[in-house]
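Quick check before the chapter quiz. The format below is the same one you will see on the exam, so make sure you can read both the input and the output lines.
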Amino acid sequence: MAGPDETDPEKNLRVMARWRQTGRVLVEALPYILKYDQKTIVVKYGGNAMTGTGTDDFSQDIVLMKQTGIDPVVVHGGGPQIGAMLKKLGIHSTFIDGLRVTDQQAIEVVEMVLTGAINKQIVSGINFAGGRAVGISGKDGNMVVARKLVLTKTNAAGEKEAVDLGFVGEPDRINPEVLHSMMKSEMIPVIAPIGVGPKGETYNINADTVAGAVAGAMKAERLILLTDVEGVLDQDKKLIPRLTLAEARALIADGTISGGMIPKIQTAIAAVEGGVNAAVILDGRIPHVLLLELFTEHGAGTLITAD
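Here is the expected output.
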C-alpha cells in the first residue's frame, strides 16, 4: 500500500478521507456479514429490473454475497422479454387480472425465453463476475411440482365462473433437494419459474410466487423481491421502511397498497408465514441495492416481518 506523499499534502488528505470512508463501510458491514453467514437468501430478479448496467451490479452483488458466506438462490422473471418474443413471432397474448393467458403455442415460447435466453444470460453474468452459477428450471429434479391455477371471476349476472388461463400454474410442492446439493458444491442456483404438472405438463408460474415458495421450503433467512419501485409507499408517497404482517394486510384493506404491489406483498406474507425470517421489497434499479439492504443498518426498501 502506498504511504503518504510528503510533497502533496492535498493528495494525502484525499487518501486519508478514502481510508476513513472505507473503514466506516467495513465497520458497518461486518456485523451483518457475520449475521448472514451460512444463511440462505432467495432473491427474485424481476423482468423490469433486468435492464441497463444494473445487470452487472446484480451479478457482482450475488458473487459478493456468496464470498461472504451467504447462500444466494436466484429466481428470475421475464415478462417483458416474453411479451417481446411473442410479438416478434406474431403470437397474440392477452392478460386477465395481470396473468398472461398461456396456450400450447405460448407456453413453448415462455419456456424457451425463460429457461434459454434469460436464464443463461443471468448465469453468464454471475460467472463472469467470478461466481459459479448453474441455471435450472422448476422442472429439473421435479423441484417445482405445479397445479393448474384456477381463476374465478364474477360474470354480469353476479355468478362465479372459472376462467381458463391455459398452462398457467402455481406451486403445489417444492422439492429443494437439488438446491441443497448445488449449494453444498458452492454453486449458485438460478431458477426459471417453470413448473411440472402431475402428467408432465409444463406450467408458467409467476416468478414472485416461485421465489416465495422456494424461500419457504428452504426456511430462508430472507426473501428479497427486486422490482422497479422503491418499495411500499404510504398515502403521501413516502417509503415505509418496515411492516408487520398485520400492518401489511391493513394497508391492502384500506387501499394504500394497490395494483401490482398487492401480489408481491401477498407473496411476502405467505413466505414469512411459511418460515422465512423476513421478506424485503427492493428497487432493483438502485446500484448494488442488495449490498445496501443486507450490509447497512438502514436497509434500502420495505422489510416485512412476523407480527
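If your answer matched, good. The two ends are 49 Å apart (CA to CA).
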